[in-house]
Protein backbone atom coordinates (compact mmCIF):
# COMPACT_ATOMS: atom_id res chain seq x y z
CA UNK A 1 0.00 0.00 0.00
CA UNK A 2 1.04 3.58 -0.68
CA UNK A 3 4.20 2.91 -2.67
CA UNK A 4 7.03 5.41 -2.68
CA UNK A 5 6.88 7.12 -6.06
CA UNK A 6 9.82 8.38 -8.03
CA UNK A 7 9.59 11.60 -9.97
CA UNK A 8 8.98 9.47 -13.05
CA UNK A 9 6.26 7.22 -11.54
CA UNK A 10 4.33 9.93 -9.70
CA UNK A 11 1.20 11.54 -11.09
CA UNK A 12 2.13 14.34 -13.48
CA UNK A 13 0.84 17.04 -11.11
CA UNK A 14 3.18 15.86 -8.29
CA UNK A 15 6.33 15.81 -10.38
CA UNK A 16 7.34 19.50 -10.27
CA UNK A 17 7.22 19.60 -6.47
CA UNK A 18 9.05 16.29 -6.18
CA UNK A 19 11.74 17.45 -8.59
CA UNK A 20 12.19 20.74 -6.72
CA UNK A 21 12.58 18.88 -3.42
CA UNK A 22 15.00 16.40 -5.00
CA UNK A 23 17.07 19.26 -6.43
CA UNK A 24 17.14 21.00 -3.04
CA UNK A 25 18.28 17.86 -1.22
CA UNK A 26 20.97 16.60 -3.56
CA UNK A 27 18.76 14.27 -5.58
CA UNK A 28 16.84 12.39 -2.91
CA UNK A 29 13.08 12.63 -2.55
CA UNK A 30 12.04 12.26 1.10
CA UNK A 31 10.02 9.11 1.75
CA UNK A 32 6.98 11.04 2.95
CA UNK A 33 6.96 13.12 -0.23
CA UNK A 34 7.38 10.01 -2.37
CA UNK A 35 4.39 8.38 -0.70
CA UNK A 36 2.18 11.48 -0.53
CA UNK A 37 2.83 12.11 -4.23
CA UNK A 38 0.00 9.68 -5.01
CA UNK A 39 -2.27 12.65 -4.26
CA UNK A 40 -1.00 15.78 -6.00
CA UNK A 41 -3.75 17.72 -4.24
CA UNK A 42 -2.49 16.71 -0.80
CA UNK A 43 1.21 17.02 -1.62
CA UNK A 44 0.97 20.38 -3.34
CA UNK A 45 -1.57 21.66 -0.85
CA UNK A 46 0.63 20.77 2.11
CA UNK A 47 3.75 22.25 0.52
CA UNK A 48 1.92 25.48 -0.29
CA UNK A 49 0.42 25.81 3.20
CA UNK A 50 3.73 24.95 4.84
CA UNK A 51 5.50 27.63 2.80
CA UNK A 52 2.79 30.15 3.75
CA UNK A 53 3.22 29.30 7.42
CA UNK A 54 6.98 29.81 7.11
CA UNK A 55 6.21 33.36 5.93
CA UNK A 56 3.92 34.04 8.90
CA UNK A 57 4.66 36.71 11.47
CA UNK A 58 5.50 34.14 14.14
CA UNK A 59 9.20 33.93 14.88
CA UNK A 60 10.95 30.73 13.70
CA UNK A 61 11.27 29.20 17.18
CA UNK A 62 7.58 29.78 17.95
CA UNK A 63 6.64 28.24 14.59
CA UNK A 64 8.65 25.11 15.38
CA UNK A 65 7.11 24.88 18.86
CA UNK A 66 3.64 24.87 17.28
CA UNK A 67 4.61 22.27 14.65
CA UNK A 68 6.36 20.02 17.16
CA UNK A 69 3.42 20.28 19.56
CA UNK A 70 1.06 19.10 16.80
CA UNK A 71 3.46 16.35 15.71
CA UNK A 72 3.89 15.02 19.26
CA UNK A 73 0.15 15.20 19.96
CA UNK A 74 -0.62 13.32 16.73
CA UNK A 75 2.21 10.82 17.33
CA UNK A 76 3.86 11.34 13.96
CA UNK A 77 7.32 10.04 14.81
CA UNK A 78 8.73 11.13 11.45
CA UNK A 79 7.49 14.68 11.98
CA UNK A 80 8.77 14.77 15.57
CA UNK A 81 12.23 13.72 14.37
CA UNK A 82 12.24 16.18 11.48
CA UNK A 83 11.13 19.13 13.57
CA UNK A 84 13.46 18.20 16.43
CA UNK A 85 16.23 18.62 13.86
CA UNK A 86 14.84 22.00 12.83
CA UNK A 87 14.69 23.13 16.46
CA UNK A 88 18.32 22.13 16.91
CA UNK A 89 19.33 24.03 13.74
CA UNK A 90 17.65 27.09 15.21
CA UNK A 91 19.86 26.71 18.28
CA UNK A 92 16.97 25.81 20.57
CA UNK A 93 17.84 24.94 24.13
CA UNK A 94 18.03 21.13 24.45
CA UNK A 95 15.70 21.40 27.47
CA UNK A 96 13.06 22.94 25.17
CA UNK A 97 13.35 20.05 22.72
CA UNK A 98 13.12 17.50 25.52
CA UNK A 99 10.11 19.19 27.11
CA UNK A 100 8.21 19.31 23.82
CA UNK A 101 8.99 15.69 23.01
CA UNK A 102 7.91 14.64 26.53
CA UNK A 103 4.64 16.60 26.33
CA UNK A 104 5.75 19.06 29.00
CA UNK A 105 5.63 22.84 29.05
CA UNK A 106 8.95 24.49 28.24
CA UNK A 107 10.63 26.63 30.87
CA UNK A 108 10.53 29.67 28.59
CA UNK A 109 7.19 31.32 29.47
CA UNK A 110 6.59 32.72 26.00
CA UNK A 111 7.17 29.38 24.30
CA UNK A 112 5.11 27.64 26.99
CA UNK A 113 2.28 30.07 26.17
CA UNK A 114 2.26 29.22 22.46
CA UNK A 115 2.41 25.51 23.22
CA UNK A 116 -0.50 25.83 25.67
CA UNK A 117 -2.48 27.94 23.19
CA UNK A 118 -1.89 25.36 20.45
CA UNK A 119 -3.10 22.55 22.70
CA UNK A 120 -6.14 24.59 23.78
CA UNK A 121 -7.08 25.32 20.17
CA UNK A 122 -6.80 21.60 19.40
CA UNK A 123 -8.76 20.53 22.49
CA UNK A 124 -11.59 23.00 21.88
CA UNK A 125 -11.52 22.80 18.07
CA UNK A 126 -10.92 26.53 18.08
CA UNK A 127 -13.48 27.53 20.69
CA UNK A 128 -10.92 28.78 23.21
CA UNK A 129 -12.24 31.07 25.90
CA UNK A 130 -11.39 34.74 26.17
CA UNK A 131 -9.00 34.21 29.09
CA UNK A 132 -6.97 31.77 27.00
CA UNK A 133 -6.68 34.31 24.19
CA UNK A 134 -5.79 37.09 26.67
CA UNK A 135 -3.06 34.91 28.21
CA UNK A 136 -1.63 34.20 24.75
CA UNK A 137 -1.65 37.90 23.88
CA UNK A 138 -0.08 38.80 27.25
CA UNK A 139 3.01 36.84 26.21
CA UNK A 140 3.71 39.14 23.28
CA UNK A 141 1.74 37.33 20.62
CA UNK A 142 -0.90 39.00 18.45
CA UNK A 143 -4.37 38.18 17.17
CA UNK A 144 -2.72 37.55 13.81
CA UNK A 145 -0.40 35.04 15.50
CA UNK A 146 -3.43 33.28 17.00
CA UNK A 147 -4.86 32.80 13.51
CA UNK A 148 -1.44 31.66 12.26
CA UNK A 149 -1.49 28.96 14.96
CA UNK A 150 -4.82 27.77 13.56
CA UNK A 151 -3.28 27.67 10.09
CA UNK A 152 -0.36 25.62 11.39
CA UNK A 153 -2.67 23.20 13.17
CA UNK A 154 -4.58 22.58 9.95
CA UNK A 155 -1.44 22.26 7.87
CA UNK A 156 0.42 19.95 10.21
CA UNK A 157 -2.62 17.89 11.17
CA UNK A 158 -2.96 17.11 7.46
CA UNK A 159 0.72 16.24 7.26
CA UNK A 160 0.86 14.11 10.39
CA UNK A 161 -2.30 12.20 9.53
CA UNK A 162 -1.14 11.59 5.96
CA UNK A 163 2.34 10.51 7.05
CA UNK A 164 0.86 8.06 9.51
CA UNK A 165 -1.61 6.73 6.93
CA UNK A 166 1.09 6.01 4.34
CA UNK A 167 3.55 4.82 7.01
CA UNK A 168 6.19 7.28 5.88
CA UNK A 169 9.61 6.64 7.31
Indicate the low-confidence ranges by residue numbers.
none
Question: How would the global form be characterised?
Answer: elongated
H/E topology pattern: HHHHHHHHH
What do the pLDDT scores average to? 96
* Count of helical regions: 9
Helix content: 55-70%
The N- and C-terminal alpha carbons lie at a distance of 14 Å
Number of strands: 0
Q: Which radius of gyration do the C-alpha atoms yield?
A: 17 Å
Strand content: under 5%
Instruction: Outline the biggest β-sheet.
Output: none
| Category by helix and strand content | mainly alpha
Architecture overview:
This protein is mainly alpha-helical. 67% of the residues lie in helices and 0% in strands. The chain contains 9 helices and no strands. It has helices at residues 15-24, 31-36, 40-54, 60-73, 77-89, 94-101, 109-123, 130-138, 143-166. α4 crosses α7. The chain starts with 14 loop residues before the first helix and ends with a helix. The model has no long low-confidence stretch (mean pLDDT 96).
Topology:
Blueprint: H1 15-24, H2 31-36, H3 40-54, H4 60-73, H5 77-89, H6 94-101, H7 109-123, H8 130-138, H9 143-166
Helix pairs in contact: 3-9, 4-5, 4-7, 4-9, 7-8, 7-9
List keywords for this structure.
mainly alpha, 169 residues
Concise account of the structure shown:
By secondary structure, this protein is an all-alpha fold.
